[in-house]
């Protein structure tokens, strides 16, 4: 496996001139600001035209991860030349969050084959319900196929996210990339570093990923009381105080859920994943050191790579807002754990997709650092 990292900024253009780009990558993954993915974007068009035979796929971000750096308003592209692994990608359009499960099921059906090893998902970050999206992939794919990825971002604006496969780039899209062959090794890890605080609250009214009431009180009003002065900046400031969705009332921790939108009229909160009636939730908070520690935990879960390869890092925009100028520390921590033989790129997201526990399938996470590491073993002589 050979990897090449390409980066573009308005100030300097491509860091590596096209004359030095790799000849025949099988896969090109790109992550960029919205403006650089819109129709007429010269850098992205150049990337696609230079690699006509590759699977070229990517999404918009809330920040681009380029090696050990974190950038805004740039384009990061990871070119991979596999020794034996094959890749194939499928895309689908969703017009409403209710279509998320069916869309994932269809994508899984299209990609399924006896030698399918892993699926990397890049999804619209606003029009998709991440909980039912991941459940759709669990239903459609064999148990031994792992699924990771993330939901596209739009900075802290939460207005429009873009996903692309080839020349088809736009909102309301999901791209799934299948990796095939016996010599591919995939490992992954996901962790947060957030700490719960305050009382446990019972979800008394919700529909899917829209939360209406906690303990019989309007959810938005209750949430605003916790935020105080920060409530004026919702939904963006909600990234600083996500909810922990607890498996039971006695549980100390659970899946983290991030706010995507608010509705003043209905006094509701819309999350990236479902908030079921009868569940208990707690607010969460974190400092920089705790979030960097979470990134270290995620890298440790992924393990030491057995060979040179690449890693796709997906971290939540909320972590970026909390860490501010220290945000690169979590990326540096991950790369130090993986070692110099791994080339890394990725993005800050509206949701992360990764298996939980011992299962290979997948769950939606929020506010985590999630990484997927790909390596190839040598074919037997």
Give the CA-CA distance, first to last residue.
17 Å
Q: Count the helices. How many?
A: 7
Largest sheet: 8 strands, antiparallel
Protein structure class: alpha+beta
Describe the global form. globular
Radius of gyration, rounded? 20 Å
Could you list the spans in which at least 5 consecutive residues all have pLDDT below 50?
A: none
Protein described:
This protein is an alpha+beta fold. The relative contact order is 0.18. The protein has seven helices and 27 strands. The protein has helices at residues 42-50, 100-111, 130-140, 219-227, 288-302, 317-323, 328-338; strands at residues 2-9, 13-14, 27-32, 55-60, 64-66, 69-71, 74-81, 86-93, 116-123, 146-151, 163-165, 168-170, 173-180, 184-191, 195-207, 210-214, 217-218, 243-246, 255-257, 259-263, 268-271, 280-285, 309-316, 342-349, 351-354, 363-365, 369-376. The strands form four sheets. Strands 15, 16, 17, 18, 19, 20, 21 and 22 form an eight-stranded antiparallel beta sheet that branches. It has a seven-stranded mixed beta sheet with strand order 2-1-7-3-4-11-12, covered by helices on one side. Strands 6-5-24-23-27-14 form a six-stranded mixed beta sheet. The protein folds into two domains: 2-191 and 289-376, no CATH class; 195-285, no CATH class. α2 (100-111) runs parallel beside α3 and α5 packs parallel to α7. 19% of the residues lie in helices and 40% in strands.
């Amino acid at each position: 496996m050979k990897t090449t990292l390409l980066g573009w900024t308005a100030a300097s253009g491509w860091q590596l001139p096209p004359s030095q780009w790799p000849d025949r990558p099988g896969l090109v993954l790109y992550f960029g600001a919205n403006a650089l993915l819109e129709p007429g974007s010269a850098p992205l068009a150049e990337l696609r035209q230079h690699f006509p035979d590759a699977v070229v796929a990517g999404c918009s971000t809330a920040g681009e991860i380029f090696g050990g750096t974190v950038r805004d308003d740039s384009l990061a592209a990871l070119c991979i030349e596999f020794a034996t692994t094959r890749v194939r990608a499928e895309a689908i359009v969703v017009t409403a969050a209710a279509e998320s499960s069916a869309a994932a099921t269809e994508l899984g059906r299209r990609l399924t084959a006896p030698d399918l090893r892993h699926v990397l998902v890049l999804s619209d970050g606003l029009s998709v319900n991440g909980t039912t999206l991941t459940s759709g992939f669990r239903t459609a794919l064999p148990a031994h196929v792992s699924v990771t990825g993330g939901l596209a971002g739009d900075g802290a604006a939460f207005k429009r996210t873009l996903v692309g496969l080839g020349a088809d780039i736009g909102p309301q899209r999901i791209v799934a990339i299948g990796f095939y062959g016996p010599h591919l090794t995939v490992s992954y890890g996901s962790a947060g570093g957030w700490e719960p605080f305050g009382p446990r609250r019972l979800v008394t009214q919700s529909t899917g990923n829209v939360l209406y009431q906690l303990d019989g009180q309007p959810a938005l009003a209750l949430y605003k009381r916790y935020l105080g002065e920060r409530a004026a900046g919702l939904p963006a400031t909600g990234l600083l105080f996500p909810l922990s969705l607890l498996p039971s009332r006695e549980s100390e921790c659970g899946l983290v859920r991030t706010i995507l939108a608010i509705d003043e009229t209905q006094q509701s909160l819309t999350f990236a994943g479902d908030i079921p009636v009868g569940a208990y939730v707690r607010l969460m908070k974190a400092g920089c050191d705790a979030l960097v520690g979470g990134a270290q935990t995620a890298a440790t879960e992924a393990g030491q790579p057995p060979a040179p390869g690449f890693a796709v890092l997906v971290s939540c925009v909320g972590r970026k807002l909390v860490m501010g100028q220290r945000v690169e520390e979590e990326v540096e921590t991950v790369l130090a754990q993986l070692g110099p033989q791994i080339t890394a790129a990725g993005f800050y997201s509206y949701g992360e997709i990764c298996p939980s526990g011992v299962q290979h399938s997948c769950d939606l996470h929020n506010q985590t650092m999630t990484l997927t590491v790909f390596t190839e073993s040598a074919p037997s002589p």
